[in-house]
Amino acid sequence: MIVRSMHLLDARPAADSGVVLGAFGAERALRLEEILQATGVFSPDEVRVARELLEETAVPDVPTPSYSFLGAFTPDGELVGFACYGPTPGTDRTYDLYWIAVDPANGRAGIASLLIDEVERR
């Protein structure tokens, strides 16, 4: 599969799944919120906090956050899942997985496993 100008930072194809993994920013905040709500697992407060954290990544003159967002995208660029992770404060080489979610319409396709594998690789 060839990935063309997805406007994703550090984008890379994920095996033969047709999914492209890459970083994303606040321009996808609404879609992130839709995915979290669609799962039926996250409380409204958790959805709000996840969106706020993503939006913080775009605030100028704010120190770089200590967490990262990794998205799973269809070949045409639609966000279908994501993970948010970062180093555990006060530890050495320990990380926390804060959120992982996949749109239920894309469930059972191994997307969550691809996200976990890439978070571990990074």
Structure description:
The structure is a single chain. This protein has a 5-stranded antiparallel sheet with strand order 1-2-3-4-5, with helices on both faces. It is of the alpha+beta class. It has 3 helices and 5 strands; from the N terminus they run E-E-H-H-E-E-E-H.
Question: What is the CA–CA distance across the termini?
Answer: 22 Å
Mean pLDDT equals 84
Quaternary status: single chain
Q: Spans with pLDDT under 50 lasting ≥5 residues?
A: 1-14
Question: How large, in whole angstroms, is the Cα Rg?
Answer: 14 Å
Strand order of the largest sheet: 1-2-3-4-5
Q: Work out the number of β strands.
A: 5
Shape: globular
As a percent range, the share of helical residues equals: 25-40%
- Our count of helices gives 3
Strand content of the residues, in percent? 25-35%
Major sheet: 5 strands, antiparallel
Order of helices and strands: EEHHEEEH
Structural class: alpha+beta
Give a short synopsis of this structure.
The chain has 122 residues and is an alpha+beta fold. It contains 3 helices and 5 strands.
List keywords for this structure.
single chain; 122 residues; alpha+beta; globular
What's the structural blueprint in terms of helices and strands?
Elements: E1 9-13, E2 20-23, H1 29-39, H2 44-56, E3 68-73, E4 79-87, E5 95-102, H3 111-121
Antiparallel strand pairs: 1-2, 2-3, 3-4, 4-5
Helix pairs in contact: 1-2
